[in-house]
Amino acid sequence: MQKKGELVSFRPDIKVVDCTIRDGGLVNNFFFSEDFVRDLYLTNIKSGVDYMEFGYKASKEQFDVTKFDKWKFCDDDDVRAIVGDNDTGLKLSVMADVGRTDFRKDIGDKSNSPFDMVRVATYINTIPAAIKMVEYCKNKGYETTINIMAVSKANDSDLDDALEIIGRSCVDVIYLVDSYGSLYPEQARRLAAKYLDCAEKYNKIIGMHAHNNQQLAFANTIECLTMGVSYLDSTVSSLGRGAGNCPTELLLGFLKNPKYDISAVLDFIEKHINALREEGVVWGYDVPYLLTGRLNLHPRDAIQFIAEKRTDYKAFYRYLFDRECE
Q1: Within 13 Å, how many C-alpha atoms sit on residue 112's CB side?
Q2: Residues 145 and 187 in one domain
Q3: Is 205's pLDDT higher than 80?
Q4: Which residues have C-beta within 8 Å of that of residue 262, sequence separation ≥ 6?
Q5: Do residues 220 and 210 touch, judged by C-beta distance below 8 A?
Q6: pLDDT of 8 above 60
Q7: Number of domains making up the chain
Q8: Helical ranges in 168-325 per DSSP H
Q9: Does position 43 have pLDDT exceeding 60, yes or no?
Q10: Do 253 and 295 belong to one domain?
Q11: Band of residue 209 on the pLDDT scale cut at 50, 70, 90
Q12: Average pLDDT of the chain to the nearest whole number
């Protein structure tokens, strides 16, 4: 597949999706101040970002509401307290994990909701359930995505079958997700081509959500962009689970559309991100995340390693490597 433009090309189909609250909430149980969330919302408007993802529609039956702040659950009234009627060009999204949301109870009609888009996160083995959720949300009036997680663990045959099933569904956007930050640009390019073949066949849009375990989230994102991927996820200062994501300030600085402006993002970093670090919130590239990314593993062990303030990196690597070889 030929690249869609060059690095200096202007692509009007590009949409930037800010995931700072949703992915970043995984590092502090979504305990963001009202000022943080409101200022991020205003920053996204000023910066020309296309979508802002507030968090999850998680089940209050499955998750203890005393252990998480409101953006784990994203009640409509809590979102309206930040955005009002959202009379802006910025669209709002929320994520719903297969098996972890009471979607029929918690997701109502689009006409009564602050959200424009529902993003459904799924593994390959739960795609039929994801499609049921998407059909429900489409019937309620929402834009929809299916985000296939841990795609680096899938074999080609299973992924081909999954894309065929999703392609025939009513979903709008199909996301390539590098959950473990294990992909190199050449691999991201090959996968993007596979997804884009499906998109062309079924008239879908493709998105990219990258993690930064090997400091390749930005590189993989722009590699997929040049192949024709349109929806690009990012977080301010890479704030996100473990090693974090593609940094918004890098992505907006790279894109050639004059609507995107990093000035407000820089103000937000100065005011809020530095304070978050001073509070002790930890995220971003570190050696343990490199090791789980290199071995194509979930970062949970690296997260625990860092929480314990360990530095015995070689022993940790040997532990991970031996466990994979068992």
Answers
A1: 7
A2: yes
A3: yes
A4: 47, 248, 249, 252, 253
A5: yes
A6: no
A7: 2
A8: 185-202, 217-227, 248-254, 263-268, 274-278, 287-294, 300-307, 313-325
A9: yes
A10: no
A11: very high
A12: 96
